[in-house]
Structure formats: structure tokens, C-alpha cells
Design a protein that fits this description.
Strand content of chain A: under 5%
Mean pLDDT of chain A: 87
Structural class of chain A: mainly alpha
Number of strands of chain A: 0
Radius of gyration of chain A: 23 Å
Shape of chain A: elongated
Oligomer: homodimer
Number of helices of chain A: 10
Distance between the termini of chain A: 64 Å
Chain lengths: 228, 228
DNA sequence: TTAATTAGTGATCAGGCGATAAACAATTAT
DNA sequence: ATAATTGTTTATCGCCTGATCACTAATTAA
């Protein structure tokens, strides 16, 4: 103890973490690092940010690529399994409320510089996990939204949405998604009030779904409140 | 000639291009290369694809970074200056027709794997040219679309669109843009008929603009034709 | 206290990178 | 034909990269 009091080295800042926790700490900081530098970032720079030497990384991960894979896995799994499917399909509540609440929560999770950058990098790489995630969005989110819209409109709730319906849902979803890209990646000025943006996008989408597909979704609900 | 007939080397495939054309050829192929490999791609691989040796690149460009800058410049300037401003503001035609034609043309230019990838890479790098382009889209496209919508709706065409209006236009525009990302970058299945997608997106946007901002845009125009 | 195990470091390797210099080959000017 | 100029290649440099190995320091087990 008294030996450590000497200013020889500023070590022993914190007690050793359990191997598993240390590993997770590495992955977390590596995620931040790669999200900024891209996956071409060097292991030495990464190690410096972790406050350790570079070879130590190879005690925890067999290779840089394995580390990267773990980064992907944690990032992609982070925003999932949060009971959104139940939220979306809870027909005791108005569909517009459900959608507003869902997109508020969903964008709270994915609208970070870290998440969006990792997502776009993996998309550019054409990684399987990216395709998997796109499939999840389509099947777990957009398809259910369409089904709820059809139910709301009194249309037959068939098993699969049509290609046109799905495309319209994608355009809607992407419009919201890209708000995050503009704000956190392009760092371009956006409408400050995110929930207002979602609200307007919902009004447009529900009105459009009603008009194009002939239903009556959101009638008497979509607020025509004056803006500004 | 007869000398070249010997199988010594398969050179002399083509007469020498003018220095300027050769340079342009290099930039064009470098664009393809970097769009696939990312800007971390090596100069040796690039040279191999060009059919020359690596040092030759440095006779045409002072550094790899200068070459990359030229790639950006050509890619970003490629889709511009095509008389779209006139098209958008030609009030002798219905606004919906103008918007459909504009987005047909615009997406014909930017919906290539090459363009979209370079665009996203530069966005992730936070390059000035990317911010500049975002500004161009906002000022030359979205602001004018809003002005035309306001005029169509009988609303006062004030100088600047409100933040809410602009955001709504961005959400609309981004929804269309991301169709290209899903198709050409994620290589995810999309609605085959691009113009149908644009048509539906327009119906939704115009109906939404009408509803949220209280005008009468597109009334009697938006086709309520049954979809599939 | 001592032995065994785990965490972390310093030195180093082979390979790839961007970039340069000198030599060679082809074209153009005289 | 000869000289000057431009286009292209071969060889190489210094640097950085991911990865490995042998070693030291810290923790845990006996």
C-alpha cells in the first residue's frame, strides 16, 4: 500500500474488473472508437484510448476482426427486445398514439452518433448483420404497422402487406430515420423538436395511407393544429 | 506494327490519350474503385485496376488525397446544373407533374451504387463538400418545393419556409433518397417500380402538406387508384 | 509464505502502405 | 536522323499496421 503512494506510476486507479466486465468495457470503448474513426482505425490508437498497450487487446480478442464483430453484435442488439411489438399491436390504444410512442422510443435509442455511424459503416460493408437488421425492421416493425393501419381502416388484415404498402411504410420510416443521419452524422441543423417531427411525419403518413389505400385511418384524429 | 505482333507484351492496346483525357479516365475509374473499396483502398490495387503501375498515379496527382478530392468534386458536380430549378418553378404545369418529373430525373442520376456510396462515405467523413451539398438540396430543391406548395395552396409565398415545413420536406425527400440506399447499398429488395414509389410518396406528401398546413394542395389531383 | 495462475508490457516481425528517384520507352520537335 | 520531352516502369525508402513471443507484475490458491 505505502509502496503505491510513491509517484512512480499513476497506476492502480481502479481495482481489477472481472475478466468478463473488462472485456465488455473494451468492447464498449472500441465501439466509440470505431464509430468515430471508422473500422480502419488502428489497434494502437484504440489501445491508447483504452489506457492499455496494444498487445493486450489480443489477450481478449483473437484478432481485430473478431473485436469488430463483437462491436457489431452489441450495437445491433442494443435497441432490440424492448417490448415494441406489444406496444405496436395494443389495439386498446389509438394507432396514432402507439406509433408516436414507438417512434419516440425507437429514435431515442438509435439516434446517437455512435449507433448511426456504426450502422452506416456496416451497411457500406454489406455485412450480413446489416441485412438481418433490415429484415427485422421490415418484419417486426413495418409489417405490423401496416397490419394495424389496415385494421384501423377496416380493411381485411391479410397475412402479408402488399409491396406498395411496404414501400410506403419504408419511405415513411426512412424519412424519420434520416432525420437522425442529418442531425448526428451530417451535423446539419434540423427541427429541434424531434417529437414534433415525428408527429408531423405521422400525420402525413396516416393521411396518405388513408388516401392512397382508400381506408379511413386516423380520421378525426390527425391534428390539423396550426403549425408555428 | 509487325514488331508489335510478337507476343512479347500485350501492350499498345490503345493509342495514347491526351494527358487531360487520361487524367479524367483515371479519376473516373478511381471513383468506381473507391466507391467499392472505400477510401482506405490501396493505390496499388487502384493502379492494377487501371492497368498501370502504382507510381504512375503520382505523375497525375500529387497525392492520394488530391486524387480523392477530385473524385469528390466530379461526383458531387455530376448531378447538378440540369435545369431543375426551372422545372420545379414552371407554374404552367400542375405541381404534382413537376415534382414527379423532377424526382424521376433526380433519382435517375443519383440512384447508382457509385454515387450513393461516395456520398455516404463523404458524409461519414464530415467533409465540407457534403455539407455544401446538403445546403444545395435545402435551398435549391426543398425550399422551392415548399414555395410551390404554398403557392398551390393559396398560402402567402413568404421568403423563407418555416422550420416545420422544411422538416416535412426533408422527411419526404429522405424517404425517397433512402429507397436508393436500400436498393443499391443494402441490396435489399424494394418495390421494383421506382416511379410508382415516387408517385405514392408524392401523394402522401401533398395530402399531408394540405392537411397539416391547411391548404388545398393536390385536391382533385392525387390519384386514389386502387393499388394492386 | 509460497506456488500457481492470470493480467499486462516491451520488443519485434512480416507485410502493406503512400511516396520518391532513377532509369527506360515512346512520342514529339528540330 | 537527332534531340528534347513526355509517359511509364523498376526498385526502394520510411512508416505504420496487425499480430506474436517472451517476459514482468499482480492476483489468487495452497
Amino acid at each position: 500500500m505505502r509502496r503505491k503512494a510513491s509517484p512512480k506510476r499513476a497506476r492502480a486507479k481502479q481495482k481489477r474488473l472481472s475478466p468478463d466486465d473488462r472485456r465488455k468495457e473494451f468492447v464498449a470503448k472500441a465501439t466509440e472508437f470505431f464509430s468515430e474513426e471508422g473500422f480502419g482505425g488502428g489497434t494502437r490508437d484504440l489501445a491508447r484510448r483504452l489506457g492499455v498497450t496494444q498487445p493486450l487487446l489480443y489477450r481478449y480478442f483473437p484478432s481485430k476482426d473478431d473485436l469488430i464483430k463483437e462491436v457489431y453484435r452489441t450495437v445491433y442488439l442494443e435497441p432490440l427486445d424492448t417490448g415494441w411489438e406489444k406496444l405496436l399491436t395494443d389495439r386498446s390504444r389509438p394507432i396514432r398514439d402507439r406509433l408516436q410512442e414507438f417512434y419516440n422510443a425507437y429514435t431515442n435509442v438509435i439516434f446517437t452518433r455512435k449507433w448511426l455511424r456504426i450502422y452506416l459503416y456496416s451497411g457500406l460493408k454489406g455485412l450480413d448483420i446489416n441485412r438481418w437488421y433490415v429484415g427485422v425492421v421490415r418484419d417486426k416493425i413495418l409489417s405490423r404497422i401496416i397490419r394495424e393501419c389496415r385494421h384501423e381502416a377496416g380493411l381485411p388484415v391479410q397475412s402479408k402487406p402488399t409491396a406498395s404498402e411496404l414501400e410506403m411504410a419504408w419511405v415513411f420510416h426512412s424519412g424519420i430515420f434520416y432525420y437522425g443521419v442529418r442531425k448526428y452524422i451530417y451535423e446539419s441543423p434540423v427541427l429541434e423538436d424531434k417529437e414534433k417531427m415525428i408527429s408531423d411525419a405521422l400525420d402525413v403518413f396516416l393521411a396518405g395511407f388513408e388516401r392512397v389505400f382508400g381506408g379511413a385511418v386516423g380520421v378525426g384524429r390527425a391534428p390539423v393544429k396550426a403549425v408555428v
